Structures are given as structure tokens and as C-alpha cells.
Amino acid sequence: MQADEQNTPNAASVAAELNQQDLDKERIELDQLVEAQAEELRQFSATTYLIGSVANPIRENVQQPLAYKRYLDQVMEDAGNPGDPIERMLVEQLVLAHHNSARLLMEGVLAEGLEQKKLLNSGSLRLMAEFRHSALALKTYRTASETDHISDDPPLAYSNSNGKDPTKLNGESLNGSARHSTHDTEVESSNRNGHANRITDHLLQEPSPCRSR
């Protein structure tokens, strides 16, 4: 009887275990919810911004949110479908800048007051300029990324025209090359010095110009 009582879990331990299971289940559910919402933000944040950016005529004709999502996906695919998240953000910013500059331009045309027209048109022009700057920034970023990728590759092994490493040439070839190179250098140096000496002698022998009286 005493052994059976010792092996039987008491009510407090059972309650603690059930409580821990509930906590683990809630933690798992919370992690899954956070993961799902993070994926939602990654997939549809730019779509939401685009829907809020377009003017009324477009919003009236394009009412399905998935149409905006499909449009952005197509633009990203046409841009090469980059895997770099920064590069993807730059493409998304270009899309938003394009549509917002057009919206401001349309609102400027429809505005009644002259000051409001000037303000909206000026904002549209500034955003167009930022669009061009962002396009150049995207190109620069892509070029830098490609350069970094190339620099990460191992350097190619050097070889001469015969496919041999010059550091592994036999002594005869290496010494012969050295002798030819040294001889050519001495001849070239002698020729230069000879020309220089003749020019100097010519200048020394040339009479100085007469001074004007």
C-alpha cells in the first residue's frame, strides 16, 4: 500500500504538469501567430501602401487587393526577382514613388486654388527627382553586390602562354630570361644616356645669344 501511494501522483503535481502543458501550447500558438503575421507583413505591406497611394480613378477600376499584389509581383519579376531584401525594398520604393508622383500631379491638375496647384505640382516634381535618384541607387547597389560576389571568388592561377607557372620554371629558362632582360635593359639605358650626352654637348657648344644693346 505504501509503495502504491508513493507511485500515485498527487493533485498538485498533476495540476502543475497540466498548467505547464497549457503554457507550452499557448507559447507554440503565439509563435505560430507571430510567424504568420510576419509573413503577412512581408508579403502584403507594399501592396497595402500601394492601395493607399493610388488615386480614386484607379481605385475605382481596380478594387481587388490581390490585383495590386499580382502587379507588384510582376514588377519584381521583371526586375529580375532579386533575392536581396534591400534590393527588393528599393524596387518597391520605386513603384510607390512612381504612383505617388502621378497621384500628386493629378491632384495638382484638379486643385482649385493656385497655391494648392503649385504645392502639389512641386511635390510631384520632387518625388520624380527622388525616383530618378532611387533608380541610380538601385543600379549602384546592384553593381556593388556583383563586385562583392566576384571578389569572393578564388583568384585564378597565373600561367604564361605555355600554361606553365613562371615560379616553377627550370633554372636554365629562368636564368636565360633574366640575362636577356638584363641585357636589353642595359642596351636601352646606354642608348638613352648616349642621346642625352649628345644633346648636352650640343647645348654646351652652341653659342649663347647676343645680348641686345
Structural notes for this entry:
By secondary structure, the protein is mainly α. It has a domain at 16-147. It contains seven helices and no strands. It has helices spanning 2-7, 11-53, 56-61, 65-78, 85-110, 114-152, 171-205. α2 crosses α4 (65-78) and α2 crosses α5 (85-110). The chain is elongated and about 85 Å long. The model is unreliable at 155-182 and 202-213 (pLDDT under 50).
Question: In summary, what is this structure?
Answer:
The chain is an all-alpha fold. It has 7 helices and no strands.
Helix/strand class: mainly alpha
Mean pLDDT over the residues: 77
Unreliable runs = 155-182, 202-213
Strand count, sense and closure of the main sheet?
none
Write down the overall geometry: elongated
Question: How far do the termini sit from each other?
Answer: 143 Å
Would you list the SSEs in sequence order as H and E? HHHHHHH
Q: Assign a percent range to the helix content.
A: over 70%
- Put simply, the count of helices is 7
- Strand segment count: 0
Q: What is the secondary structure topology, with strand pairs?
A:
Layout: H1 2-7, H2 11-53, H3 56-61, H4 65-78, H5 85-110, H6 114-152, H7 171-205
